[in-house]
Amino acid sequence: MEKKTIARRNFLGGLLKAGALLPLTGTAALAAAAPRPEHDYTASAIPDRVILNITKDPSTMAAITWRSNTTAPAYVEYAIADAHPEFTAKAVRVAAKTDALQHNTLQVQYHSITLTGLQPDTLYAYRAGSENGWSEWFQFRTAAASGKLSFIYLGDAQTGIRPFWSRVIRKAYSRLPEAQLIIHAGDLVNRANNDDEWGQWFEAGGYIHSSVPSLVTPGNHEYTHDDGLPHLSVFWKKQFTLPEGNTGHDALEGTVFYTDIQGVRFISLNTMMMEEATSTALLTAQQQWLEDALSKNPHPWTVVTMHHPVFSTKKGRYNEKVRTWCKPLFDKYKVDIVLQGHDHAYGRGMQRIAPYGTMYVVSVSGSKMYEHEQMEWADIVAGHQQLYHLVTIDRKQLVFSSYLATGELFDTFTLEKHPGRRNRITDSKHHPHL
Q: Is the dihedral of CA 257, 350, 181, 214 positive or negative?
């Protein structure tokens, strides 16, 4: 028996060293222990890291970003998709913008373009590249002017991205391939300026990134503190083409914005620039921007995404500045749901802490797990599980469903909108895996 035990330990140890097995112990150190994968993320003339970004109006616009190692003029060719491959004869070629990025020994070209004048609820095909190399043809559907809307929400990917997070985003997409966007609530990677980790993130999502618009909001791990001050990743604004926020502060642009899709206003906030703002000017600017975005919202539904949660899944992790600067406005303008990350556990609650029916959700999709405990604000707190969430908004009803990485339904609830009254929740409390 003793020899078998030793052999089993040696086998498991080998898997751990290879990054094939990662026990969920609840500690950040163990989750981050997976070694750097032996994979080549060197840019070439063939476009890679192609991503479809959210725009101000996804019914008529599409923003596309990719990278290569060539300075040759870059283009996007696009057309209304057709089952016959001769659709390419009708493709329109549009010149893209090219920006060089040099960071340490890395030298690469990023290319971006925003297509405008598209037709709502229409399937388009596109490819990106240059005469030195082209991507495959991708397809995406523009948003409709109104009607049922479905999207995917993912908490922190951060660690174990290639070996573990890949299965989560792929499982979510396989269950909801017609999603109109994917929300990534910060901490997409662990080290803001590590090109290998960004390579893992793009590889894990693959063509999903190229086919479904991504709404990304930054977390604390998208920032460095080399001089003691927060600096956004050198990759962020190069690889994501996001709506302009018109905040008046460069530190907020590319991270604070909104998009309107089929009767829903989606708002991205930068909580790092709340928790670690070097001046009250940044705090005030973001708060004023938020109030303007909320007060002038013409749509019945409001979804906010940000990284640091208003209410946390363990005592001692509250983000007081976020709560102080955001929650009064969420209450005042009756925000429907706030989607967050950071705590590496799952929690959601509304009835005990939101007088106007705002549902607060915290989640994690990667392999890094934190300890959690039952909290006074929450209807449910759970942990040590990779999760993805599918959300559907149809007229006066929002249906939120949480799934385990293995596909089982974990939790679900429905919000019903009643003008002039707080949202009503129907809580199924379906979480047999607790």
A: positive
Residue 240: closest CA among 284, 190, 186:
186
Q: How far apart are CA 315 and CA 308, in angstroms?
A: 14
- Residue 406's identity, in one-letter code, is T
The model's pTM is 0.90
The residue that leads in pLDDT, 428 or 8, is: 428
- Which residue matches tokens 């490819």? 127
- Could you give the count of Cα atoms lying within 13 Å of 256 in the half-sphere of its Cβ? 26
C-alpha–C-alpha distance, residues 205 and 213, integer Å? 12
> What CA–CA distance (Å, rounded) separates 164 from 347?
21
Least confident of 166-175, 190-199, 243-252, 282-291: 243-252
Contacts of 286 (CB under 8 A, 6+ apart): 247, 249, 252, 256, 269, 270, 273, 274, 325
Residues 6+ apart with CB under 8 A from 14: none
Task: Compute the average pLDDT of residues 344-348.
Answer: 96
CA–CA distance, 317 with 25 (Å, rounded to integer): 19
Determine the 3-state secondary structure of 295 from DSSP.
helix
Which residues does residue 77 pair with via DSSP β-bridges, in sequence order? 93, 127
Residues 270 and 81: their CA atoms lie apart, in Å, by 36
Q: Kindly report the CA angle at 63 between 62 and 66, in degrees rounded to 5?
A: 135
Of residues 217 and 9, more confidence is placed in 217
Q: How many helices (H) and strands (E) does the chain have?
A: 9, 25
3-class SS at 195? helix
DSSP string, 376-428: TT-SEEE-S--EEEEEEEETTEEEEEEEETTS-EEEEEEEE--TTSPPEEEE-
- Band of pLDDT at residue 171, cut at 50, 70 and 90: very high
Measuring CA to CA, which residue among 346, 103, 344, 335 is closest to residue 219? Answer: 344
- For 384, the token pair is 């040590």
Following CA atoms 66, 267, 201, 139 in sequence, which dihedral angle do they give, to the nearest 10 degrees? -50
- The Cα 264–Cα 424 span in angstroms is 18
Q: Indicate the residue type of 1.
A: M
